[in-house]
Amino acid sequence: MADSEHNRDNELQSDFMIEKIKERPINKRKLIRRTLITAAMAVVFGTIACLTFILLEPVISNKLHPAEEPVPIIFPEDQEEMAPEDMLSENTSIEGNSESDSNIDKEQMQEIFSRLILDKNNYRQIYTDMSKYVKELNHSMVVVTGVSSNINWFNNVEESKNQSSGIVIANNGKELLVLTEYAPLKKAESLSLSFVYLDSAISGNVSVPAVLKGQDKSTGLAVLSVDLNEIPSEILDSEQGIKIASLGTSNLRSIVGTPVVALGSPMGNTGSIGYGMVCAVNVQNQYADSYYKYLQTDIYGSQNAGGVLFNLQGQVLGVITAQKPNADMKNMITAIGISELKRSIEKISNEEVIAYLGINGTDVTEEANLELGVPYGTFVRETDMSSPAMRAGIQRGDVLVGFGDVPVKNYDEYITALMDTKPGAIVELTIMRPVMGEYKEMAVSVTLSER
Description:
alpha+beta; Thrombin, subunit H; Pdz3 Domain; six-stranded antiparallel barrel; six-stranded antiparallel β-barrel; 11 helices; flat
């Protein structure tokens, strides 16, 4: 009996030992929720880390490796140049004061010229020398290419390219700055610069990306920039490499008759050349706050001409434009005078905003001053709608004679004073207004805006 009870106890213990322990059932919803929360938190923390790196990386880099600021571009002011006839008269007065001396000089000159016989060899020599001169000037010339893409009828992407001639105007230590006509490039999706005018052994097929720095919509010209690190050292440092153009002056009394060379694409093709002279000067100020001189030449070229006008001293006199002041001279090469361009392209090169007042004016002529009593200054022909000038009450017929503390005697002096002032500045203008047959002085306060 005892044995049977003992055996039963052993069986019960054995059954207890072989029982399986059930695992706790998995809550799938809870597991999925925790997984999603963990993933979301990882995304949030990753995003915060990326944003923090993006925001702090430039600051840390600038602290460790401070970037050099570009050197401000300042173009030299126009120098007073003496006309050849003035130089001749001055030398004549110094060397000899008697009329007999000047007569002897004239007789000697006539005798020398009578012995001088020019033939085809002289003609060939002139053009040979001019060819060498053009090669020197071409070290400042580049070609800008604008690339845009379109989808054709068959849904294929096609690239179209437009080109414009450019002139290297400055190096600010970080970038090479190029002045070019922007009309052929304004629809481009990307811009590049090539040095096709240099020796192929140096330039090869080098093409570097360019960026629009700013444009002057009044003239259709733009300043492009190229990172110096993108340009091969042999192009920058070699004597046969790229050179900064020398900007001359177009604001000369004797500029009509000046021999000039047209480079770039005066005939419509890249690398074409034209020789001639400045035969007329036209002043155009059809846009508010603008004053430009157009140099008309006797060079017959393309209606879509581009490039630069050089004088024989290696200086830029003007930038060729398709805008024509005379409708009956469409094929004659015309350039915008460099003296009037310096002010705007200097501002654009330094990424400075140009101030805007909104006055379209002109000079007061001597006849108007003497016969009608119009004071010298900027005669207001009209003001732009909603411009600071119109809001200040300036109207047609007013004469601007003072811009702050600066007296204004003509329209060019007004443009110069405006260029020297920053947008947002409050300026006290001195206006002469015709009242009952005479001009009365009045002061007008105006806040300049951005051009």
